[in-house]
Amino acid sequence: MQNNNHIEELIIKYFSKTISAEEKSLLQAWINESAENKRYFQEIQNIWHVSHPAFHPEDIDLDKAKTKILNQIEHKPSKNISFIVWWQRVAAILIVPVMMLIAYQLYSDSLYKSDVAYQEIIAPLGMKSKITLPDSSTVWLNSGSKLKYPVVFTSGKRNVYLSGEAFFKVNSDKSHPFVVSTNNLQVSATGTAFNIESYANDTITAVTLLEGEINVQVGEMKSEHIMPNHRLVYNSKNNKYDIAKTDAKHWCIWKDGILAFRNESLENVFKRIGRTYNVDIVVKDKSVGRQLYRATFEGESLDEILRLLKLSAPIKYKRSGREQQSDNEFSKERIEVYNAN
Q1: Which region, left, alpha or beta, applies to residue 121 given φ > 0 means left and ψ of -120 to 50 means alpha?
Q2: Consecutive sets of 10 residues in the chain, 341 residues long: mean pLDDT of each?
Q3: What pLDDT was estimated at residue 87?
Q4: For residue 315, what pLDDT is reported?
Q5: pLDDT at 16
Q6: Confidence at residue 71, expressed as pLDDT on a 0 to 100 scale
Q7: Segment 283-286 long-range contacts (CB within 8 Å, at least 24 positions apart)
Q8: From CA 104, how far away is CA 101, in angstroms rounded?
């Protein structure tokens, strides 16, 4: 895609935070082209992190080392020296200061932890987002969900924080557990695929395992070891949880634009449809909300889904259009569902 010199220039710009949005897209495309490209980029990343410590204690003077590095950067590596070898020589300048920094870290570990920078991604209402984490694990965020994670995973763990719903495809690394924390539970994994539902305004939090193995800690209760095609559902109202066998893919394929319902209550069906299409659906009759429903929707519009639901379930509904509010924003469309009998 790009010649080596140009790619090396983009990598330098990326780590020095001078890269433009267009150049960043070109670099990301090159990284995704092959495993070799990704490995090359990660090698440069490791060298960069060594030569650019995350913190600079006042009692350790790095000015001299910094000057030497800048002098090295001002001169491009010769054609006969590979980019990695060049950076290794630059990083070697900091061997003594880095050793001093390591000693300082052992003396005051809390200083290191306080410098961790976090990234927060929010999936807009009615939309989904796909994220690649620092360890190359992949996360799909459902509508109205939020994921917080460190820019660089440190301290032997890969910790992220979720509010909402997300599907995780975690890269295997048994020595560095992957931990997802929500308001009510904590999921620990190494390499696996699973779905978590944990919206702040819901009383139900659920974890569904598609493949691999996970451990789920619910509050102060004992940790549960979950196997594939099992689903843990926690109810915050009664502070109890249940684990049952399920077809996990039906709880995960929302990320592919498919809504699958398997003997779910209509109340939950309308809740999921409302999130997907960014509308407020209110079930006005509790007896309707308790009825179980089974269907799969793929690519249908909201109008079509409502029409099919009306044909297959004893319901009728009333729609209220969006209204302009005092701040000039428009409210969500509201749909009220009633018993048709």
Answers
A1: beta
A2: 70 82 85 79 64 45 52 50 54 49 46 66 90 94 95 86 97 92 94 95 94 93 94 94 95 93 92 92 92 91 93 91 69 89 80
A3: 55
A4: 92
A5: 77
A6: 56
A7: 283/337, 284/336, 284/337, 284/338, 285/337, 285/338, 285/339
A8: 5
Are the CB atoms for 145 and 139 separated by under 8 Å? no
Three-class secondary structure assignment of 53-99: CCCCCCCCCCHHHHHHHHHHHHCCCCCCCCHHHHHHHHHHCCHHHHH
CA distances from 30 to 27, 108, 282 (A): 5, 39, 47
| Best CATH choice for the domain 257-339 from the list 3.30.70.2190, 3.55.50.30, 1.10.238.10, 1.10.520.10 | 3.55.50.30
Classify domain 118-248 at the CATH topology level.
Jelly Rolls (2.60.120)
Distance (Å, whole) CA 191 – CA 189: 6
Task: List the one residue out of 147, 188, 181 whose CA is nearest residue 166.
Answer: 147
Strand partners, 197: 165, 206
Could you give the angle at the alpha carbon of 169 between the alpha carbons of 166 and 174, nearest 5°? 125
Helical ranges in the chain per DSSP H: 4-15, 21-33, 35-51, 63-74, 83-92, 95-107, 109-114, 249-252, 266-277, 286-290, 302-312
Identify whether the C-beta of residue 148 lies closer than 8 Å to the C-beta of residue 120. yes
Measured CA to CA, the distance from residue 303 to residue 64 in angstroms comes to 67
**pTM over the 0.90 mark:** no
Q: Where are the domains of the chain?
A: 4-114, 118-248, 257-339
The predicted pLDDT at position 88 comes to 56
Tell me the β-bridge partners of 281. 335
From the CB of residue 84, how many other CB atoms can be counted at a distance below 10 Å? 15
| Per-residue model confidence (pLDDT) at position 63 | 55
